[in-house]
Amino acid sequence: MTRDRGQMTLVAFMQASNVSVYSGSWRYPSAAPDFLDLRYYQRIARVLEEGTFDLMFFDDRLAMPSIYGGSPDEAVRYGARPVKLDLMAVLGAAAAATSHLGLGATYSTTYYPPFHVARSFATLDHLSGGRAAWNVVTSVNDAEARNFGVDQHLGHDARYDRAEEFIDVVTRLWDSWEDDALVMDRESGIFADPEKVHELAHAGAYFDVQGPLTVPRPPQGRPPIIQAGQSGRGMAFAARWADLIFTADPSREIALEHYRAQKQLVAEEGRDPQAVRVLPMAYTVVGETEAIAREKEEIFLDRLVHPTASLALLSEVTNHDFSGHALDDVVTDELIDSVSGIRGLVQGVRRHVGAQQLTLRTLANHRATLLQGPRFVGTGAQVADQMEEWFRSEACDGFVLAATHFPGAFEDVVRMVVPELRRRGVFRDEYTGTTLREHLGLDRPTSVFARSEVGVDA
C-alpha cells in the first residue's frame, strides 16, 4: 500500500557546535566558521524558514568526547564535537530571527531536574509564539555523569524508568496553570485565579516536585515531544510519549519494517498512529549536476574526518575506550560481549553492510561520517525522487535532514530540493499556521487539571 498524497515533515538536525553531526563538516572549504556568533544560527534559521521546514532541532551532549584514552585531547585536537553551546540561548536568537520555524532542543532526563526543563520550554514556547519542542534523551556515558558529580551513568532500564517519571512530571507542570487562569483585571486588582493554578505535590521514585510551574501554560499547551529510542524499551517509550520519532534506518527496507513496528506500538498505547511522525535521519548531497553532487560526496566520505576522531566518537557512543585498538581490528563476538553499549550499533551496521567482515573502521565511520544513515545524492530532482520514494511507500513520514556542512547543505536543499517536493505535492508551499503543533497537524492537548477532566488535582 502506498500513500497517494500528503505532506512530508522536514526537520533540520542541528548542533550548537563547530560541526554538524558529520564531524568533518568544519573542514569543508565553504563551511561558515563563526559558530560562536548568534548571527550564524540566525542565518541558518532564516534559510530553513524560507524553505518552510517544520522545525530545526539541536542535538546535545553534556560532556566533551573523553572516553577515548581517558581524555578529551583527541576530540579537541581534531574538532570531534568538543563544543556544545547552551541551547536555550541559541534558540532564543533563532526565535528572534524567525516567525514560523519550530525550535527544538535536547534536554536530558538524567541530569536536569524536571522543574528546570518544564520552565525552560514553557518560556521558549511563550517567547517564540508557540514554536518550542523538546527532544527527550536519557544520556549515554560516564563523561556526562562526571560533569554532574556522578561516578557513572545509570543503567539502560533505570534511565528509562527515570525518564518515564520525568516526562510525566514535566507535562503536568506545563498543565499546572489552566488556560484561563490569567485574569489580568486591573480594576479589581486580580491578576490570576488561584483556583486554576495547581500544585502537583508529586512524590515519586526519582523526584519530589511541589509545583506549580512559575510560567503560565504554554501556547501549545504542551510543546511537542521528540524521541529517538531504538531499543525495544526506547520504542515503547516513544510510542507512549513522542509526537516525532527520530530513527536511524540505513535503508528503505529496514525503515519500512521499523515504521510498521513503531506505528503498531503507538496504536497499542491507544494513540492515533497517523498523529505521530516517524522520521529517519538522512544526509542530502545536492549539486547542479549529478557529477557535481558525486564529487562533493567523495570529499565528504574520504577526505575530512580524521580516523582518530572517528574512534573518539565511537568511544563516546559506546561508553568504551577504544584507544587500545587499531582501526582495522575485527569486531569479534568477544569484543561485542565485553562492550555493553556496542551490540545495537553492530547489529544496525551489519544490516547496512551485509555479510562482509566488520572492522572498527567501518563501525567508527558509521558514527562520524555519512555512512550512518541513508544518503540522497544528485540534482535537486534526483534527491526529491529518492525522498518521495521513501515517503510514498510509507517508510517514513518525512525526514530529519543532517547537514554535511553549515549553512550550505541546507541552502542547497531549500534552493534545489524543496521546489521539487512542492511541485510533486508532497511538501507545503507556505506555512498555514503559526505554532509548531499547527505545522504538524497536532491537536492542542487539554490540561489534566481542566474542569471537564475527571480526577482534578489527582
Automatic annotation (TrEMBL):
Domain (Luciferase-like) ranges: 33-391
UniProt xrefs under CDD domains: Nitrilotriacetate_monoxgenase
UniProt KW keywords: Flavoprotein, FMN, Monooxygenase, Oxidoreductase
Recorded coiled-coil stretches: none
Protein name: LLM class flavin-dependent oxidoreductase
Pfam families in the record: Bac_luciferase (PF00296)
InterPro entries: Diverse_substr_monoxygenases (IPR051260), Luciferase-like_dom (IPR011251), NTA_MOA (IPR016215)
Origin organism lineage: Bacteria, Bacillati, Actinomycetota, Actinomycetes, Pseudonocardiales
PANTHER family in the cross-refs: ALKANESULFONATE MONOOXYGENASE-RELATED (PTHR30011), C2H2 FINGER DOMAIN TRANSCRIPTION FACTOR (EUROFUNG)-RELATED (PTHR30011:SF16)
